[in-house]
Amino acid sequence: MDRHEVVIAGGGVIGSAAAYFLMASRDFDGTVAVIERDPSYETASTPRSCGGVRQQFSNPENVEIGLFGHHFVTHVGDYLAIDDAVSDLTWREHGYLFCATQDSMATLVENHAVQTRLGADIHLLNPGQMKARFPWLRVDDLAGGSFGQSGEGWLDPNTLLQAFRAKARALGATYIHGEVTKIHKTVGNIEAVGLADGTTIACGTLVNAAGAQAGRLAGLAGVPLPVAPRKRIIYVIDCREVLEPVVPLLIDVSGAFVRSEGTGHICGISPPPDQDPDAWDDLEIDYHWFEDIIWPALAHRIPAFETIKLTSAWAGWYDYNTVDQNGIVGPHPQIKNFILANGFSGHGLQQSPAVGRAVMELVTTGGYRTIDLTRFGYERIAEGRLLLEKNVV
Ligand SMILES: Cc1cc2nc3c(=O)[nH]c(=O)nc-3n(C[C@H](O)[C@H](O)[C@H](O)COP(=O)(O)OP(=O)(O)OC[C@H]3O[C@@H](n4cnc5c(N)ncnc54)[C@H](O)[C@@H]3O)c2cc1C
Fold first, then answer.
1. Which terminus of the chain, N or C, has fewer Cβ atoms within 10 Å?
2. b vs e for 36-70, b when ≥16 Cβ sit within 10 Å of the residue's Cβ?
3. Distances (CA, A) of 198 to 1, 189, 222, 310, 364
4. Domain edges within the chain
């Protein structure tokens, strides 16, 4: 039977980031195997992501993670170059713009204090300042907004995934095409994983990086994990008018969001919880959200969007933490060699550098050395203590 010091179930951006940081660490001299059931990543969340990186979160950990995410993607050559070849992540640093009404302004002000205390370059704007900066924006019903002056933007998610994967392999990680269908454990210890083709692979540590399927994977070890796939649809639109400056990732008070993409724009919305059923197998496009909710809301906020053309759309699954919409990261309290890296609820792409590094720190030192993610641990789920993230887009 093959054995690896660390087996990572799931080779998306989280699993590949963990593999990279382990292989790159001077404190790790074991072997890493990444087991991925679909190396084409056809339905994985990562390539279907919008690639956004931000610091505008309510929890300090998420702000710090976002700061490291920005550092990582803007210094990607220092980490992921292979023979001096550096992947072009097509990083666009145009910021996030959260819009607020009188009611929601207090939350933005509260979050802004956390973000700036940690060094994020976020500015509160009044409606006049918003209009001066973004002349195409309607502001008469806004109390203000917060804008990432620098450090926030977006990149091509699949290029980041492939760069992590290629570098992890170049450093010696093994990628295995297979599906984990069994987890063999004794009390308090994972011994091996079983694959659908009958292979068994022994491990020192198992990392759950199964994305939207993380709840199902944890179930194989008898661990209840509140992570489920939630379908999110992204619509691609063309606007007749050229908007200057380009549209940052704008989050309207309705919850609808939009940003520029090439010469056009992409937009979407997270449905209200009562209209957000689990959708394990379905990636169908539902146009009702665009026609009835997103377009009217965005045309109100950006009047030039009265005349747009919907050109295409895609759907993907958020790896959604149904309890408090924050990552669940760290060893299981009773099964210490089972590390969770799950439930990022729509921000896992930008969190992959920090989470990959955190997994490496847990494996090599048993604790955190950089960003302290203790509060993201599974304990809070087991004990019913929520760590709510207010800024889920
Ligand atoms: C529409 C959309 C927009 C998004 N926008 C953003 C954004 O702007 N910014 C941001 O930070 N995040 C965003 N996200 C979220 C982000 O894409 C995810 O949080 C992130 O990609 C999760 O990475 P992952 O590696 O955990 O999951 P995945 O990329 O899904 O990878 C998990 C992998 O595990 C494999 N797997 C599952 N079960 C098994 C098994 N039993 N055995 C072997 N392999 C298995 C799967 O095949 C898959 O390849 C968005 C997501 C969507 C859907």
1. N
2. bbeeebebbbbbbbbbbbbbbbbbebbbbbbbbbb
3. 11, 21, 20, 46, 30
4. 2-82+156-226+323-383, 96-151+229-318
Question: Which of 20, 40, 45, 234 has most ligand 1 atoms within 8 Å of its beta carbon, as the pocket-test mutant?
Answer: 45
- Asked whether residue 281 carries a pLDDT value surpassing 80, the answer given is no
Q: Which CATH number does 96-151+229-318 carry?
A: 3.30.9.10
pLDDT over 70 (residue 49): yes
Question: Above pLDDT 70, what percent of the chain?
Answer: 99
Report the separation in Å between the CA atom of 326 and the middle of ligand 1, taken as the mean of its atom positions.
Answer: 14
How many Cα atoms are found within 13 Å in the side-chain-facing hemisphere of 387?
23
What's residue 279's pLDDT? 66
Is residue 234 within 6 Å of ligand 1 at its C-beta?
yes
10 lines ligand 1 (CB under 6 A): yes
Indicate the pLDDT class of residue 275, thresholds 50, 70 and 90: confident
DSSP β-bridge partners for residue 313: 235
Which atom in ligand 1 lies closest to the alpha carbon of residue 319?
19
CATH of domain 2-82+156-226+323-383: 3.50.50.60
Average pLDDT over residues 90-97: 98
Atom of ligand 1 nearest to the CA of 342: 26
Average pLDDT over residues 285-306: 96
